[in-house]
Amino acid sequence: MKQKIKILLIAGAENTGKTTIIKRIINWLENDILNVQKKNVRNISNLELIKGRKKDFFCILEKNDNIKFFISTASDNEKIINNFMEFCKKNNYKQNNFIIAPIRNIGDKNREYFINVIGKITSETDFEKDIIEITLNKICKEAKNVEYIKWYINSMCYIAQKILEQGIFNVK
């Protein structure tokens, strides 16, 4: 039996497109995997806006009664990380659920903190086997060519979608 991946991390420095890609993953999951009918109803439950952040939030997407996607669009500091972990606990995170979240680059203190804290709620998770990390490059936001930026974001979203589709996450 294939190992079931439980956590998808979108990694990168500040302003590399982590939130943009996570929001696109949410839309893709809703439209293609969860088959949500867009009649002013979203399959997002327990949406919590992150205080002091205009565009960031925590949410849950539900595939059925047994599988949930716990999603965060930020992990910039210990307070946000702790709030996300409390959000997961409060909403009954279980081992068959998934986490999709951003994470900073290697060497960032918040990255190490995130890994330590997330390990506490996902007690069965083996970070070497149960996590897939997509790393983003700073050049994405620094590029002057709009077509290049679109291509880069689309390519990263495509990679994330294929990872989620290919059975290791078993989302289809």
Mean pLDDT: 77
Write down how many β-strands occur, each being a DSSP E stretch of 2 or more residues.
6
The total domain count is 1
Radius of gyration: 15 Å
Distance, first to last CA: 17 Å
Defining traits:
5 helices, alpha/beta, 6-stranded mixed sheet, 6 strands, 172 residues, globular
Task: Explain what this protein looks like in three dimensions.
This protein is α/β, with parallel strands linked by helices and 172 residues long. It has one domain (7-165). The chain contains 5 helices and 6 strands. Strands 2-3-4-5-1-6 form a 6-stranded mixed β-sheet, with helices on both faces. Strand 2 (44-49) and strand 3 form a beta hairpin. It is globular and about 45 Å long. The two termini are 17 Å apart.
Secondary structure elements and their pairing?
Elements: E1 7-11, H1 18-33, E2 44-49, E3 57-62, E4 68-72, H2 78-90, E5 98-103, H3 109-121, E6 131-135, H4 139-142, H5 146-165
Parallel strand pairs: 1-5, 1-6, 4-5
Antiparallel strand pairs: 2-3, 3-4
Helix pairs in contact: 1-5, 2-3
